[in-house]
Amino acid sequence: MNKKFFSHTVVHDRTQEFTDIWTEEKWQEFSRDFLKEHPGIKIQLLCKRLLDITLATIAILLLLPVLLVIALAVKFTSDGPILFCQERLGRLGKPFVIYKFRTMVDGAIHIGAGLDTFKGDPRITPIGKFLREYHLDELPQLFNILRGDMSLVGPRPLLVSTLATYTNEQKRRLLMPSGLTAWEAVNGGLDNSLEERIQLDIWYVDNWNFWLDIAIILRTIPVVLRKEGVYQKHSKLFTATQKSNQ
Fold first, then answer.
1. Higher pLDDT residue, 232 or 7?
2. 134, 174, 187, 203: least buried by Cβ within 10 Å?
3. pLDDT tens column, 69-106
4. Per-residue pLDDT tens for 132-153?
């Protein structure tokens, strides 16, 4: 594999120093309490992981030509790497590097609105606009799913810096793996404020079962085709720490 051709940029989120973040032991205790509240959930979580591996593998094999075409389009229509990579919050507050096709000009985080994005943002490339509208820029996250960083369905991964703003109740959204699609994504997505999306994530976690994931996957298809919830509204409480995805 040509490492230069398949280059990428990793953006580290270091906007806060987390001296008050829970220890790993505290997160594990939080997780154990959740499992006790939901008897029988372990078997369903195993089924969820098996579904993730199966569908992600099939999707990668079937979409390999599409992934290659998108990679070539990104590479030859604007300067910069093919992939945009950034640290995000995963299950139990553990950070991981998320993969996305680059949709903005190289170095966009140092231009204009920085990490913030908006509809009509001039930093978004022509091919990037198309990829964003149909969420095709998210396809590399299929590899995140195979790695175990993410799931097909779960709360969308936010920036690491948002963790410092979470209440204990809001930390519940981190009890499940981050998802390629989400309950909030099929209920307005980025048309909702960050606070509203977090509340939808908490509802998902508290009411989760295997069949809810199946329903969300099926509902995601028309949402993507209708190009719903592509751009984020500004948050009232988290503006200082949460920026929209590149």
1. 232
2. 134
3. 999 999 999 999 999 999 999 999 999 999 999 998 87
4. 999 999 999 999 999 999 999 9
CA distances from 216 to 35, 57, 170, 186, 223 (A): 22, 19, 21, 7, 10
Q: Which two tokens stand for residue 210?
A: 């295997």
Tokens 């200082």 sit at which residue? 240
Assess contact for 182 and 212: CB atoms under 8 A: no
Q: What are phi and psi of 63, to 5 degrees?
A: -95, 5
Q: Would you kindly state where each structural domain of the chain is located, as residue ranges?
A: 8-14+21-225
Q: How far, CA to CA in Å, does 232 sit from each of 87, 204, 218? A: 19, 20, 23
Alpha-carbon distance of 91 to 139, in angstroms, equals 20
